[in-house]
Amino acid sequence: MQNIWWLLAFLLSILTASYIYINQFIKVKGSQLMVYRGLGTSCLLLPFAFFVPLLHNPAFYALCFVQGIVISYGDNRILNSAKVFGAEITSLIHPLSIAIIFLFWLALHPHEFAEMLNMPLHFALVLSCLLGISAAIILICHSKISRKALSFLFLGMFCEVFIDVSNKETTHLGAENVYAAIFYYTLITSFVAGLFNLFFYIKSGKKLPPLMAKKNYSFMWFFVLYAIIHSMLKTYAMYLAPNPAYVAAIVHAYPVWIMLANNLYSLKNQGYKTNRINKAHLFLLLISMVGLVLMVHED
């Protein structure tokens, strides 16, 4: 069971790609979307709390609350970055954060770092695979970085690192009942993130009636369902994986699957124009992913 983390991570990556691809047609604004995903998810899950046992570790709830705030801030930072610098540069947050997540987790857990140092070749190969995945995603997505954009993205990148590391940490704090931990993690972080996004939504001058318009109900259910499935699957994958960076590396390859789907579609529709994926870059991504899975299974 422990070794299926990579399969769950790949399913999450495809799920994320599908969600983003669908939103290209629905075109829901980011701030509005986060309110639906946050408050909608918590409202749907709340009745089930009567059937899920509470955890006895107060640190678990505290970390979930803090993470909800960080998710809210990080999302807004990413949305503002996309508005100022464009989605292409903003997408660098994910691949650049992978190796940092890996090292940050080891810094928080010295015994795991010591184990890695006892196997220097294994440590070097794992880190090489993570860097290979990051480089491949950046090359495939044709992302170009600037000093100004990087300084703006720094806080967003730190939020990304904190979110993935604390996501796995909550499963340690809730180890007495990991399934209850996954449930309450999703409930609490969704509620806090949704509440703070609602605050930012109102603060930006937007009004509540358009947010609750009946026309939005036709797609609201999709985003709520997606948020529940995504959060629970990701948390379980984080619980199974030895290091949160392993899950992040595979999940954050989702832009590549979107581009690959567009490439395949363009082959059947000659009038459809899209950026071609360099086969060497795609090979680097796939071989790095396979290498990562094989290296981790040897642990």
Please give a handful of descriptors for the protein shown.
0% strand, 299 residues, 14 helices
Structure notes:
There is one protein chain. The mean pLDDT is 84. This protein has 14 helices and no strands. The chain is mostly helical. Helix 3 runs antiparallel to helix 8 (147-173), helix 3 packs across helix 9 and helix 8 packs across helix 11.
Give a quick precis of the structure:
With 299 residues, this protein is mainly α. The protein has helices at residues 5-26, 30-45, 58-85, 87-90, 93-108, 110-117, 120-140, 147-173, 178-203, 208-211, 217-240, 244-251, 254-268, 279-297. 80% of the residues lie in helices and 0% in strands.
Which radius of gyration do the C-alpha atoms yield? 19 Å
Low-confidence stretches: none
Beta-sheet strand percentage?
Answer: under 5%
By DSSP, the count of extended strands is: 0
The major pleated sheet works out as: none
**Helical segment tally?**
14
Shape: globular
The helix/strand class is mainly alpha
Note the run of SSEs as H and E.
HHHHHHHHHHHHHH
- The chain-level mean pLDDT equals 84
Distance between the termini: 15 Å
Oligomeric assembly? single chain
Helix content: over 70%
Topology of helices and strands:
Blueprint: H1 5-26, H2 30-45, H3 58-85, H4 87-90, H5 93-108, H6 110-117, H7 120-140, H8 147-173, H9 178-203, H10 208-211, H11 217-240, H12 244-251, H13 254-268, H14 279-297
